[in-house]
Amino acid sequence: TKQKNNLATMADSGVPQETTALLGGDKNETDKGIRGDKIRPNLSSSVTARASFRNSWHTPIDLNDEPKSERRGQLAKSYSVNANGTASYLSPVEMGRHELYDMVPFAAVFGMQKKERAMSQAFASFAGDLDAMEADQLEFKKSRTHLSDSELEKRRSHASVLLLDELEFDAVMVTSPLIIAVAMASMLQFLLGYNIGVMNAPASVVFPGHSTGSWAIAVAAFAVGGPFGAMMAGKLADSRGRRGALLIDTWIFLLGGLLQTLAIDMYSIIIARFIIGFGSGFASVLVPIYLGELAPPNLRGMFGTLTQFAMVIGILVSDFFAFPFATEEKWRYLFSITPITAALLLLFSPFLLESPRWLLGQDRSSRKARYIIKLLRGLRYDHEVETEVSHFVSASQNQHCDGSCENDTVNSGVAFTEMLMTPKVRTLLISCLILQMGQQLCGINAVFYYSTSFFEGVIDNPLLGTTIVGAVNVVATYVALLLMDSCGRRTLILWSSGGMFLCCVVIVLSLLGYFQNIVALLAVNVYVSFFEIGLGPIPWLIVAEMFDAKYVTTAMAACSQLNWVCNFVVGFVFPYLNEYLGPYSFVPFAMVLALTFIFAALKLPETQGTTPEELMDQLVKKNSSVVYHNMNIEDAHNNPIDLEWKLAMEQLKQEDEAAMESGSYNYGFKPIEGVQPPASGSDWQSGMGH
Question: Is the predicted pLDDT of residue 278 greater than 70, yes or no?
């Protein structure tokens, strides 16, 4: 019954009869159309694949019998028909965007650009093959001869390049509302980084005379609040909206920053650090989701990179501000940066947009969501907005959002149970959790929390050494971005853990007096550099690459919780390690790095990101039951409205040329109907006189 209803609807909407036959008519007609499961890459080298398509396209228009004017007036719109009989009227570019929305998770993750580009290339090749096959079949219907292999390859390459350029246009089409949203969300990541490093320099000037334990608790309280904030972020984002949750997080930073700035004793500092840690954990979960839901799929990796840079720049800025403010008289100015930044964010909050995905999850007919999409994408026409809405809705359904984002938390619990019950997925999850433990227990935050006290007695100006480490951290983040495009994830983990292990050995030997103290400073900087190229970004990146899009958010939430717990352990324990182990304080970190190296070498799968060829095979399997029609990418590359206008102008031109040939064309010399010319010149002159 559903199939018959679809047939009737499509017949009323002008769908060609060939599609109707394909949905359930004559058996001989069911082979007409290009099926996704028949696509194979490298058409020029596959004569067999080309032959399998020769009779699969619907009967074309007879160009010799049809009048030229009628033939020129036809606009064949591309569409696809699913196995259940539903039709989708999307252009090849819109089909590509639809696939990107489905396959790229709604999260801004550092280093995900390569996967996004690979997906665009995969669909461009997939659609290019469809275009070439259609051209071959149309040529066979017209001349009873097939295109040569070189002609097919030329056609496929040209179509793929056109489509790829259009798909990657989103990467450069950035609107002002999107820039403002990214800037404001990134400032929350900046505050996260700033509060990681702000306690490093003033350890000896904030309430002098405090014990090692009280300062360790104050530093570690940041990591105690983190997991609670990460846990609450998802619930508040679902109930109050992404924008509302961001504003709540900003108020949390403002409250914690004011309490820390106006602290009266170490207990106030500890409470303030817990509140700021809560806000930081909140931001670490919410910001990637918010930016991922605002950005088009091929910009989510870049926005994830921007937030990562915002965090490491925040650490560096805290080191710079320590030079003038890390004194007994001015340390409160150092802490005041947090509430000042939060107040500025609240001042500009009217420019912060709500997530269209969340709005559509609440109400699929939301006019506000459509207005925001129009602003974010710079769209002009309603049909473009509706197409974008369909991308959001379809991707949300595929990524376990059942239409009500209030159920996302429930879905996360169900998804986590499902992940544990599936052997293959459980293995991937355990691998990600082990890497998260290695990331924190390797001791990197011992450097960012305590490097100033660690460098005391090692170099003349410990604060200068801390600032150098912060600067190296920023540069190494950029180097990591370059390496992730060319090196495998497992390879980077091995280099990172192995290099950090050697640096720990050198640090210990330097502190024991086997090398000069300057060698210890160099070893710490190299240690940070090796961290940033592997153990820093990779544990988060592989979550987006290992799992299907529907599991990414759940896996990231689990990893975030464990990451904060290990962060607390390092922040609380290192002062005691430094006090009781002395020069051997980095030995426990070296042991963790050795175990991480062994695990990566023996158990960790390579996750460099799926290649375009592998992604294309996935597209073929995914669309094996879909039949594509009118996949002419070169014609579809133009705006349909521009094509209609062009055809209308050509028709007017033909009518004018025909009127000129027949002598009936009006050149503008005929008198205007209803207006009588003057009888004589004198009357005309007299009329002018009046």
Answer: yes
